[in-house]
Amino acid sequence: MLVYLIRRLFNVAATLLVVSVVTFGIFFAVPKLTGSDPALMYAGRETNETALAGIRVKMGFDKPISEQYLLFVKGIFAGRDYDGGTGVTHCAAPCFGYSFKTEAPVWQTMMDRIPVTLSLALGAAVIWVLAGVATGVVSALKRRTAIDRTVMVGALAGVSLPIFFTGMVAPAIFVYSLGWLDVSNYKPLTEDPLAWLNSLILPWVTLAFLFAATYARITRATMLEVLGEDYIRTARAKGLKEGVVIRKHALRSTLTPIVTMFGLDLGGLLGGAVLTETTFNFQGLGTAAVAAISQGDLPVIMGVTLLAALFVVLANLIVDLLYAVIDPRVRLT
Amino acid sequence: GGDKKDDKADAAESGKGYSGAAEGVINASDAKGGELKLWSPQDVDYLDPQRAYYGFVWDIQRLYVRSLLAYDAKPGKDGTKAVPDLAEALPVVTNDGKTYTLKLKDGVKFEDGTPITSKDVKYGVERVFAQDVLSGGPTYLIDLLDQGQKYPGPYKDTDPDKMGLKSVQTPDDKTIVFNLASANADFSYLLAMPTSSPVQASKDTGATYTNKPLSTGPYKVESFTAGKGATFVRNENWDPKTDPIRKGLPDKVSFTVTTNPDDMDQRLLSGDIDLAIDGTGVQQAAKNKILKDANLKKNADNPFTGYIRYFAFPTTVAPFDNIECRKAVIYAADPKSLQTARGGPTSGDLGANMLPPGVPGSDKSYDPFGLTKGKPQEAKAKEALKACGKPDGFETTIAVRNNKAPEVKTAESLQASLAKVGIKATIDQYDGKLNSSVIGSPENVKKKGYGIIVMGWGADYNSGSGFLQPLVDGSFILPNGNNNYTMINDPEINGLFKTAATKSPEEAAPFYTQINQKVMEKALYLPINFDKALVYHNPRLTNVFFNESFGKIDLATVGIKQ
Amino acid sequence: MTAPLHDTSAETPAPVSVADVPAKAIEGRSPGRIAWMRLRRDKVALTGGVVVILLILVAIFAPLIVKLLGHDPNEFHEDLIDPDLGTPLGSLGGISSDYLLGVEPTNGRDVFSRIVYGARISLIVAFLAAFVSVVLGSFLGALAGFIGGWVDGVISRLMDLLLAFPQLLFTIALVSVVPNSVWGFEGSGVRMGVLILVIGFFGWPYIGRIVRGQTISLREREYVEAARSLGAGRGYILVKELMPNLVAPILVYTTLIIPTNILTEAALSFLGAGVKPPTSSWGKMLSDAVPIYQDDPMYMVVPGMTIFITVLAFNLFGDGLRDALDPKGS
Amino acid sequence: MTENQNNGAPAFVPEQGSPRDGAPFLSVRDLKVHFPTDDGLVKSVDGLSFDLERGKTLGIVGESGSGKSVTSLAIMGLHRTGNARSRPHISGEVVLDGEELVSASADHVRRLRGRKMAMVFQDPLSAMHPYYSVGKQIIEAYRTHHDVDKKTARTRAVEMLDRVGIPEPHRRVDAYPHEFSGGMRQRAMIAMALVNNPELLIADEPTTALDVTVQAQILDLIRDLQKEFGSAVIMITHDLGVVAEMADDLLVMYGGRCVERGSAEKVFYEPRHPYTWGLLGSMPRIDRDQTDRLIPVKGSPPSLINIPSGCAFNPRCPYADVPKGGITRTQRPELTQDGSRQPALVRLPHVAGGADPDLDRRDCAEAVTDMNKPSEPETLLKVSGLVKHFPINKGLLRRQTGAVKAVDGIDFEVRRGETLGVVGESGCGKSTMGRLITRLLEPTGGRIEFEGQDITHLGVSQMRPLRRDVQMIFQDPYGSLNPRHTVGAIVSAPFNLQGVTPEGGVKAEVQRLLSLVGLNPEHYNRYPHEFSGGQRQRIGIARALALKPKLVVADEPVSALDVSIQAQVVNLLDDLQQELGLTYVIIAHDLSVIRHVSDRIAVMYLGKIVELADRKSLYESPMHPYTNALLSAVPVPDPRRRGVKSGRILLKGDVPSPISPPPGCRFHTRCWKATEICKTQDPPLVALKTGHEVACHHPENAEAATPPASSPAGV
Ligand SMILES: Nc1ncnc2c1ncn2[C@@H]1O[C@H](COP(=O)(O)OP(=O)(O)OP(=O)(O)O)[C@@H](O)[C@H]1O
Ligand SMILES: Nc1ncnc2c1ncn2[C@@H]1O[C@H](COP(=O)(O)OP(=O)(O)OP(=O)(O)O)[C@@H](O)[C@H]1O
Ligand SMILES: [Mg+2]
Ligand SMILES: [Mg+2]
């Protein structure tokens, strides 16, 4: 178990290392090769050579790319000093550098935005798991009935609807036509829980709709498979009530693949629900990344990419550990 | 250069002057109190006066930054005049227009109570030179004052008092003398820019000064968080008696950055907030709401922003070296379509020449190509093509920033119109953030074959040279960050600029009219629009008017109805 | 020897055992034929299939269709636009007999033709990207599953790694990094090429995993053993024994990855990383609709529904195909 | 119900001569279970009636798909659970202890389930929930019907586990199913079924998945528990040996109907239905040295959708055309009761006259041939010291920490023209051995010589020419044929791979092979899924024979097949050997089949050969205690010998792990004769008499043996 964990953590580190090298390479080295200058991107607007030279020294763009990478890595673990001419700015670990655009520390930007993405992803996750699994189970139990067909058609529609479309249609209906909700920007939970809730309901539902559809489909398929298993027959042969058979025996097994999927989906979303955030204009990690990309804000791109990758690999790891908890047959070696 | 002020301007689409704020002051009042709530979808670039370049930040800086001169807080033409602010009077110009001497008023202080001296003003000017640390702001002062000294800015200054810039002298604490290398009529405008405002050397924190600049105006920065906003509270050390420009009516001013412009518009229309200070106008949804609703419409204004939108034809790229080919494009274009692409009449008036209204010397009615008729002139275009030797048209590339939706749309419109006369234009969207090295590099323009460049331009200060010179003066051609995209280097035009520089603004105006005509005759530009914005303000605001120098509601006087 | 005692076929209706019946049909019902028969019975999937084929035809004959029913997709019609509001004149986004799906706000381009031409982009990108993913995924997946050992290790790690990348972000980033002209190609073609390669590249680990898993399970089947016992080499086993059995999952996955690709392409266009104007694209139309959708909802609905119907059709067809190819299905 | 043939009164004549008074404990009347499917109505059970008394055991036998399981599930009311849409139509009566269950409310039946009637399923691994501990599942069964706290229930669970012979029940109660061996799982299943003292126990193939030794343990256990609890038991199986050992009464099912029913003895000794004869005749028997052919039932089981009109067995029946009692082929014969026999023996009217002795074996006569094996056998394959270890990699660096010693030093030889049978419990390394000698696996050590050539470490290409001579037949008729290839492609693959073009072309040769194995050569273009299991196995055989191999290794060639089909295939193998002079190595766990087909037999235990002898010698006087135990564990299909069989040796426990086999003699942990020497010294395989080698320190039947004068190493 411990050995397993060590090996997995080693894998996590290795994956992140490769992700960081590749990302760094693509965003720092490639522009250099094609002749564009990160200092120019940093300066962004009309600028002059003095300013550029200053930026190069301060941000370390004058150093070889490998050294820049090492500095970057060092910054994450040990912090990093920037010599800005008027004195040294220390960027404490974990230091992902400073945004080219806002000059705010990238770490700070990410930390500011994580609550948004977290609220969005977690809330939606709760909804989609509950709704998806519940409808999937009902659908499986009511197989080939009208309910089943309706749910499955709805699920297929859900899978086929682009979220940037539902994300527009939902407010058009619920805000502008029916007036049930206000359109509003993300409000921090800590400031005003009600406003937080109000601002999140539509994005949650929109995002959850997409995933719930997938989950309902998978739950249904798995459930049907599980219901055909011998041990379900055994449970019934014991005289268990049907409800107990479904809940304790069938659902438990059905959940295993769901857990895997859930972990990965959530892991992916935590790195930024790009489309949902964009559609609803939420300032989460996803929009941060998109904005950073369109502005050539390399440190933010690096930071968000690494963070997103970290979420994914950690989710993977957790899913695997969870798997072992759920399924006693799985041995972690 | 207007590029930076204009960063956000394109997101706006705009209308006609519905109520008076674009023409006169509305709700004049001296009532004090209340909180002025300013919102913006765009964060400030810097609060540091030497680094700020966004137009709306300059407007905000009227709350806490005073410089030697400042634009008067008056509607119409008066607002474009620089009047004494910290200085007792307008500069005394001697030495054939090369020496500017100013004296500071008595009783002007920093927010910490320290009196402002001429050294503080000089130090402020010197900070502009430290571009390696304090990049971002306009650098005209360097161009005019460095005079070969290669002054590195105060941080690397070897002078013990950090007063090493030779061209500026401070004979005493009240007097400051600027020595120019040659006469320059626009220097007063530069003195009215926040870059010329005083900074106390002992309080200078370098790159982080932007987080807490020391106030000299009616308000001081209470808090500032990048990306979120700022609050300004009363500065007790501001003496209204020394300040003929600012009123300082609200008790507090808050500035909030939003990420959802539509949400901001909605708050604005519902009266939650007072003003979208970025001044680029409301979003499409709110715009249509306002235009359809007379009640809302009366609180809206549709002023000129001082920008012009245009296509430029680099003469280094064939076949645009041939004037007939340039004319062909101009005639083939559909001005109405281009205007619609930018957002319709509220987004600007059809522009027919290169000097926008408000700039001394401009003439809105000057229309050498009949563009204001709003129709493509295919026959003329074909004729021009024939004259150019390309009766079947030609192929070319339109360069457009990828981050400006209306520019992309205008490019598409032009592309569609050109196709009708056989000119096949390909649209190349480049990374808008890199424009100084993409279209700003003549070499690159030539290499990529950009025959048509879509851009917008607004002056940093309101004079014909401030507006036109970077665009058409051959001596302004730069290897990088060039704005003279057409690469015109006409001795006659260059000469006209030189002469105009020695004249007073009033005397200079006809020269700019002349330059404008020369440029248009060469068919170097296809103007699209004199830019406008549809701006809505909370009806509770008092002393509302648009200051033509910023194209925005002047914050120096705005108050709240009590 | 073991000839039937009695030939009962004359009287026995359809006995299960074929051996006892003289062959009426010598031609066997191949698994593919059976799948096709099953598919033919699945009306829903067939509907999806028909829509897919229609879409493909629309894409192929876009110029003809537009000539007959629409206007030049890049032609501006400002006369159809309210100049102040920027919205189309007339109700429902300017739908009329002349402009079947209305016109674009701001410039009045014919939405119908733009949708029709957009189908080309969507389908070309989706199909070719699927092709890239499937080729890479099948090849590497089969290789990993079949050879095992360190080859498997390396390929599996690579797949894990790619899946750990925030793909959408990376795709946007890569698309925007690539210059306008590459090796003499320019404009939309380059951008489409990049889209195809990037979407395709990030898509392969999904199919790679499936194929790898399938290969591993197939590798253990006794018929592989049988082939080996006949002296078959690796190549023969991979090509002759495994590949035919991998075709079904690959086919199913292909039909299911195509709608995903359509959505991805639309999403990228939506985020501004799609093909370049004036080339029309469904996702771009949707993102253009964002600022104006309260005033001109039709302009949002048309491309939105188009994407929806297209993706739904592919999904329906893919689902049906999967059911039809499922050996467990009845 | 729209069955016109059957709308009359139940054909069953109520038994008048029932020995007991009152109604029987379980009475099933005209039970029908019909599944509506897309292809039509599947009549899985179609009018079944029987009775069962307390304390008695009813055996239900029949081929796969004959409706045995469906019947048992119908009694349990398990068809009525789950989704309404997939439920079958059930009609008829199931009266349990006076209560009618078919029409009772579902909830009422549920309450009876697990308490009054319980069930043991075939595959104990899949029948237990993998995520819950064994104890939890037993506790759940108990608490469903008893209102007790968890502790009490747990005590009960431990008690039951103890009762079914799980060692250390206190500890094992918390184990998960996958941590149990097959036998232990089945014990746990039984404990779960019996935890509520059910009065009716239905065991559906409870031992089919198990080794003979474990099967014997389980059967004993069921018998003991039945005695103790006095329950009625329904024992469903396709193994006639098992019923013969267990059942009082016997019911033979075919195509969803009962074709014969009666006391076990009567059915075994006076079978009336041709299908029953067929079943009995197809069975190779452990107790007879059967050199003649098996008598298979022709063809394969019927489709339950289109059950032939008339007798369902009609298409396969050798008597179908023998007119008896004026019944035509399309008429369905009714069960009749023979009043003279108790309990009722039912029979078909048109064979009322009893088995026709001529017809009985009429197709065997020509098959009874002399086994003309070469007298001076020459060695074809010689294996010495063969070892195969599968490495186990563990730990941070995935270093090898151990090995599965699947084959651990075996020596034997195969002579030209003979059949070597290899038997042993599951996991003892039989398949590994088979794959080693066909060089599908690379040996870890030892030496394999084929026709004098060392082939131990030949590479793929060096092996290729030899592949013609050594061929394999596989166990799984489904897995061994590529579903995407036509039969023609499958059978011609050997030619293509070896680059051989037979005379007359590949296609003609393939068709010849197909007819050789009894398939229609016209089916050349068909796909495997269009064939039944037995036919598929023939395709596999045709493929193996294509290149005229000298040696054929068959790994469990018939164990996946039904008895009747099994007999067909066994006969085919026999015939082919005769005709083509083949040499076989046949691997199987079924000692009866092995006895039937082999000339010499090797018994394997934990990667070693413990005994190697010719058939007669091995079966009549086995020397190794393990062989003895194996043989005694095989149930004999003869009810009369049930009581007589005294010498049954029950082996304790399971086969130890091949990762760390016991030191010394590997069998010593389960051997009742083991002494100190067995724990330390590994006995070598020595020939104690001619043609009889054994590896044991304390061989049995050794007195009969003449120890070889010298050479303790044997041959
Ligand atoms: N749910 C169902 N739907 C349709 N057909 C079914 C269903 N359950 C069983 N059958 C069919 O009923 C027939 C009898 O099945 P059953 O399981 O009783 O056979 P069996 O005698 O137990 O065979 P085996 O020895 O293989 O276990 C089979 O042909 C089977 O295909
Ligand atoms: N490829 C392999 N890797 C690791 N262990 C293996 C492998 N193949 C077989 N074994 C192990 O070797 C042992 C012998 O397996 P083998 O299949 O030869 O047994 P068998 O006698 O054929 O059993 P059965 O009757 O169940 O088929 C078993 O413990 C098995 O788990
Ligand atoms: Mg069964
Ligand atoms: Mg085996």
TrEMBL record, chain A:
GO cellular component terms listed in the entry, alphabetical order: plasma membrane
Pfam families reported for this sequence? BPD_transp_1, BPD_transp_1_N
Instruction: Indicate where this protein resides in the cell.
Output: Cell membrane
Q: What is the lineage of its organism?
A: Bacteria, Bacillati, Actinomycetota, Actinomycetes, Kitasatosporales
> What does the record say about its membrane topology?
Multi-pass membrane protein
What are the residue boundaries of the ABC transmembrane type-1 domain, all occurrences included? 114-323
* InterPro entries for this protein: BPD_transp_1_N, MetI-like, MetI-like_sf
- Report the SUPFAM superfamilies cross-referenced here: MetI-like
What name does the UniProt record give this protein? Answer: ABC transporter permease
Q: Which residues cross the membrane?
A: 9-30, 120-141, 153-176, 196-216, 255-275, 300-326
Question: Belongs to which family?
Answer: Belongs to the binding-protein-dependent transport system permease family.
Name the UniProt key words of this record, in alphabetical order. Answer: Cell membrane, Membrane, Transmembrane, Transmembrane helix, Transport
Automatic annotation (TrEMBL), chain C:
One of the Pfam families matching this protein, by short name: BPD_transp_1
Q: Looking at the record's lineage, which domain of life comes first?
A: Bacteria
List UniProt keywords, sorted A-Z: Cell membrane, Membrane, Transmembrane, Transmembrane helix, Transport
Q: What is the name of this protein?
A: Peptide ABC transporter permease
Tell me which Gene Ontology terms the entry assigns under biological process.
transmembrane transport
How is this protein positioned relative to the membrane?
Multi-pass membrane protein
A single Gene Ontology CC annotation of this entry is: plasma membrane
Keyword Membrane assigned to the entry: answer is yes
The family database entries (SUPFAM superfamilies) matched by this protein are listed as: MetI-like
Keyword match Secreted: no
Domain annotation ABC transmembrane type-1: ranges = 119-318
